[in-house]
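In this supplementary section we document a worked example of the pipeline. Step one takes a protein sequence of length 850 as its only input; no multiple sequence alignment statistics are reported here. Step two produces a three-dimensional model, which step three serialises into structure tokens for compact storage. The input and output of this example are shown verbatim.
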Amino acid sequence: MRVPVDWLREYVAVPPDATGEAIAAALVAVGLEEEGLHTGGVTGPLVVGRVLTREPEPQKNGKTINWCTVDVGDANGTGEPQGIVCGAHNFEAGDFVVVILPGGVLTTPQGPLRVSARKTYGHVSAGMICSERELGLGDDHDGILVLTRRFAGDDEALARLVPGTDALPLLGLDRETVEVNVTPDRGYCFSVRGVAREYGHATGAEFTDPALALAARAPEPTDGGFPVELRDDAPIRDRDGCDRYVARVVRGIDVSAPTPRWMATRLTEAGMRPISLPVDVTNYVMLGLGQPLHAFDLERLEAPIVVRRARAGEKITTLDDAARALDTGDLLITDRGGERPVAIAGVMGGAETEVGASTRDVLIEAAHFEPVSVARSARRHKLPSEASRRFERGVDPQLAAAAAQLAVDLLVEHGGGVADPEVTDVGSPRAAAPITMALGFPGRIVGIAYEPDEVTSILVSIGCAVDRDGDEIVVTPPSWRPDLTTAEDLVEEVARIHGYDRIPSVLPTPPGGAGLTHAQRVRRVVAGTLAGQGLSEVWGAPFVGADRYAALGLDVDAELARSVRLANPLSDEQPLMRTRLLATMVDALRRNVARGSRDVGIFELGLVVDLEGEQRSAPTEDVGVRPSDEVLSAIRAAVPAQPRHVGFLLAGDRDRAGWWGAGRGADVSDVLEIVRALGDALAVQLSTTADTAPPFHPGRCARVTLVDGTLVGHVGELHPKVVATLGLPARTVGGELDLDVLTRAAEPTVQARTLVTFPMAQSDVALVVDEPVPAAAVESALRAGAGETLESVALFDVYRGDQVGEGRKSLAYRLTFRAPDRTLTTDEVSALRDAAAASAGSAVGAVQRT
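The serialised model returned by step three reads:
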């Protein structure tokens, strides 16, 4: 929320010497985080100049420029006229203009523009004569800002037009705007009124609520006003979608009348673009008081207005000219007795009743809408607006009449309209529920001994009505604070107003406990192991489209059957929750390579979805109340399985080249090594066998399983078609493992084994097997037959050739034996080796090579 300082001064007694920085610091003290300080975007010297001469000079390109001499007084340090080249033609000699001298800085869409003396069109132009757009004062770019015309009729301003005078205060470009970040529970601060109230709390400055005087002037409701009916056959949380609707009519408005300069300036400073008088008035009231308004063209509106829920199949064309299919949960403003939708309540109006150039009579709507209804409609239609932003956070229901009165006053004063005496004001907002709190409760929660009178005084200062009954108080929150519903909310207010900085910092003593869970320890071990392998951890948004499944070479129909489709996706191109980490990790790899990282290794630990059966919707319940067991069961049943996976990708060189020699590109052996490292770190025995599974190359893919055959995942080299389709580096390798399976397989504690000091004994064996037999199967058979004294098995040679025959291969293994209680003899080692070879022969048909 951007708050112009001079506007803030209207509502609260800000000291005359208070700077924007000091105001922002005061607001931070009461919980409104500073987002920034803004000025006019111009850094001087910016001065008043008087054009002495203007000499048109035609150029070869057909353009005519003006060589001007401009009196800038002593602002240039010499008192001599300033020579400036200007391409505009809407001024004459004798006019007062705005000149930015060399060294000044203008803010442009492309960034800061520093003005300097430079040679152009045969002259040295020492500065620039400015337009409205260049100064951020309007949209006129082709014409120079002529001060004598701008301030016509303003004798005080005209008297200040002296060459060399600082133009920043003259044009209001020295004005400051404070921008604060408003948290979702403080919706009342989306207005100058709300921020002024908080500044008063922070500094003790006197706050004058503008709504009080406006409400006092607002006429009482009459019977002859524009007819409005509130109808809601589908309330949310037992609350009607609209519980108050104020309608005021102003006739004979000149919609072409200019918006007052002071109003346009404030709107611009607050971050809104002036459009037309009726629109600017509604925006001004919303920013000032916090009550969104809407203006209807009365001639296009047919009585009566009915506020109701949308019907199935209804449509509306909104002000952005988009035709929107309505949902039965949308709250609508309709006319013709409920037949025609003319606005999505609290979100955006309809095009059919829009105020246009021919509008003469307008109906001003000031209503109070249920926050959840507005929030759901804004998200459903992807239509966030300044109005919905406020309604969904809670608008003061008692503010409608005052806001409508201010809008009527401004339209009458500046648009020449006449207000109808009849006033429509229907509905009755629900009163805030009282909260009972023990006076000592804030002290117990915060840890500070608040005095009872201090607690009461703070709550009264924020607008609460407080009744004391012994050691308890009954607190009724003000209408603009719908977030105050529990005693804990009141405690937060006491701590905030009393001062967060006055809460002592005490380091708590950590309670005893078991520390991390087994699953958390496994995740840390896995992340640490992968980082030790040289990989960097990444995070990717878990959203994909069906085209990604196709790009990865997956069975699209099978993946869609397992995917969860989002009802309101951030992007229509990515409406699905991922079923695999690699589906989104490839984006991170591609982005890093595109930004110059040639050798990349990344990993991610994250959740995927694994939907079984039909996707179901979970019921919703009001916050702050524990749902029933039946509702909780339905919610859990609707949530699909979400296993946690770990994925990794390698591209480029695994061993980099240097003075030590040539590099080596990442290949399948590297991802197999990662699998082995993870298994060793978790004390889980993992087996790898050849397999074919997308998105991997069918000849360079390995299936990873536990010893009992449970599938853990797949690793390998990505298929060339996948690499080409996704624009990945050639020969990219990677893998994805089910971390939940690894967690269940990992022992919670690893028992240390006694260190054996007896010497090891090694024996080599070469086995000839058929070409399709995987080396892992041979190794498994050797382990099964070698006995308990086998310490390790290592494949150190593979031979294919005439000596073993076509379609055969020789695998040479080194077996390492060690006994815990003695030194093994040569005969014992030979017997163990032969037993291992016999086991391989029985299991995979291996023949010992001689």
